[in-house]
Amino acid sequence: VPVVLYSRQLPDFYSVTVDNLRMGALAARALIQKGKREPWILTSEITFPGMEQRLDGFIRAMADHGIPVSRDRILRGENTPESGAGMTHTALTSGQACDSIYCLSDAIACGCLFTLNQSHIAIPEAVSVISIGNGEKEYAMYSTPPLSTVYLPMEDMASRCLLLLLAHLSHQPIKHPQILLETPLILRTS
Questions:
Q1: pTM over 0.70
Q2: β-pairing, 148-151 with 178-181?
Q3: Contact yes or no for 41/73 (Cβ under 8 A)
Q4: Which residue stretches of the chain have pLDDT < 70?
Q5: Which one, out of 22, 23, 63, 150, has a CA that is 20 to 30 A from the CA of 134?
Q6: pLDDT at 177
């Protein structure tokens, strides 16, 4: 049975994935370049290793720049705007400084932006927000303010998986059985 793994890798299997550690590091570096030193992380429960790697990549990149991120600054909820809004409220009322928020999904970031706007907190001057761009690009482009993302090319990954599968089924030679796609940093206003 031909198998192509989506967003995962195993030896001897075809796969299409991204560098999850790099995604987290890109988000961290974008905040560091803005002078941000008090980040919070908003995420849902970890459902696959790539999510944990995006979290670890962010924490490692921050630590490499002398900015330790303690585990009590990581809030876990559901992958919804409502949960993102609630986690943002928790971060803002925790008594700990907050000058930036890294969201591991666009859905969470949507709620985060909502709470920051409702609280009349200037974005990005007081608090910068960056997300893993795993939703529709248009939602990030037209949020208030437009959301900076590390773009996860989910549709491209799916189409590449299908092409690998079709090539395998038709016995065509496959030059690259493991495909690693780029995840560009898209800086917008947030």
A1: yes
A2: unpaired
A3: yes
A4: none
A5: 63
A6: 85
Gap between the Cα atoms of 104 and 109, Å rounded: 8
Contact 53, 20 (CB under 8 A): yes
Can you tell me the distance from the alpha carbon of 91 to that of 181, in angstroms, rounded to the nearest whole number? 33
> 22: which 2 tokens?
């790099």
Cα 136 from Cα 134, distance rounded (Å) = 7
- Tell me the DSSP string of 17-46: EE-HHHHHHHHHHHHHHTT---EEEEEE--
> How would you label 62-82 residue by residue, b for 16+ Cβ within 10 Å and e otherwise?
beeeebebeeebbbebebebe
pLDDT value at position 25?
98
